[in-house]
Amino acid sequence: MTELTDLGVRALRDGIRGGEFSAREVADAYTDQVSRAKELNAFLVETPDHALAAAKAADDARAKGDTLAPLAGVPLGIKDLFCTKGVEATAGSHILEGFKPPYESSVSQRLWDAGAGMLGKLNMDQFAMGSSNETSAFGNVKSPWRRSDGGNAVLTPGGSSGGSSAAVAARLCPAATGTDTGGSIRQPASFTGISGIKPTYGRCSRWGVIAFASSLDQAGAMARDVTDCAILLEQMAGFDPKDATSLDAPVPNWEAGLSSDLKGKRIGVPKEYRMDGMPAEIEALWQQGIDWVKDAGAEVLEVSLPHTKYALPAYYIIAPAEASSNLARYDGVRYGQRDLPDGANLQEMYAATRDHGFGDEVKRRVIIGTYVLSAGFYDAYYTQAQKVRTLIARDFDMAWQDCDLLLTPTAPSAAFGLGEKSDDPIAMYLNDVFTVPSSLAGLPAMSVPGGLDKQGLPLGLQVIGKAMDEQGVLNAGLALEERAGFRARPEAWW
Ligand code: GLN
Q1: Is 64 noted as a catalytic residue in this protein?
Q2: What residues form the membrane-spanning segments (predicted)?
């Protein structure tokens, strides 16, 4: 018999509805799996009671003959960036240690309203700043994957949603929420052989999601396949008057709209994404993806996004600028930790709290952000970066005159070993080279597994769509998924 933890969102939902197994059995199987995987360090907090309560509600509803909610009894992992009422939310930082939000984020509330349960809070890069999970104040998450050459190097699950990607890949949860500011859903999905979608900016409410860079932050779904991403995202998305940038538009039924027939679709391949020094395996995977979408009926053409090379520098001005402003609220007075050295005055208390509470990467960004926003430098850096952002968005608008979707690799490499890049922030930032442009333009984008590299590690392909065209993105993702036939999974060693 298939283990319940091998089943994804759709199979669990349908199995619970059809009485093949109870929601209680599902919750028990997953909570057990979570409790035995401490070595991965994917969960910061385990909440079996939450998952069991949702399971009981689902089983009771079914026993009474009531119609089940869309995700009734499906247990999920929640990235620790989401505020969860009464359950610690730290954003992976010491400064928020002990913070139990008195409210629930809009996205997680939607999931509970849809009948889902929470298995726990997932580890992440501190304040979602990072690409490897090494900036977490609570120890890095370990990828469940290992290289096939026999080396036991511990690999990164990607970041910042690395707890989410590791937990989904290791079958500790069928799906998880993630957030993506510059690639934090897509790059970890690529590194761990799972699917992940960042919707159009504004689709998912930011209310109750701890802020990093507000004009870029967007929640999304991470799951084992494209269909499960569609199902989960549908429940996460929706207008929320509590978020001023929330999109006031109906959420389509993405699951029902899934089709891998790409006839009539024009798919652009941006020539500027052919970077110097890109590994041959990534290049080969990209070509494979092109062949797959052609096989699905799409027409493929080369397009140009001329300002691509300015995307990373612009992002690494805009994101830290917004972060420095958002993180000003952590003053030791209002939330979490306070450091009050003997005889310290207010200023000294702020300084000590922030010095001890924030990690190095967070401090680096607060300092860069404060610098680029300071009088005298504002125009040279921040204003200039905003202009570049407009040009990047315009590049995409121009491309949409010729094509409907774009196909690119998700990341410039497979997962790297922990410690391999942590001393070189620029090398780390280069990980985001393919994901940041669509974030700056607010466009929906997803990563699906395409294959394995020579060392047996997963590589992802990215589909980028027009604003509001999550359906087009999911459909192209499905076409790739069907053709890639990706079945590899990490063997349990944890
Ligand atoms: N790795 C990028 C950064 O460090 C993106 C992070 C994210 O999307 N949250 O900013």
Answers
A1: no
A2: none
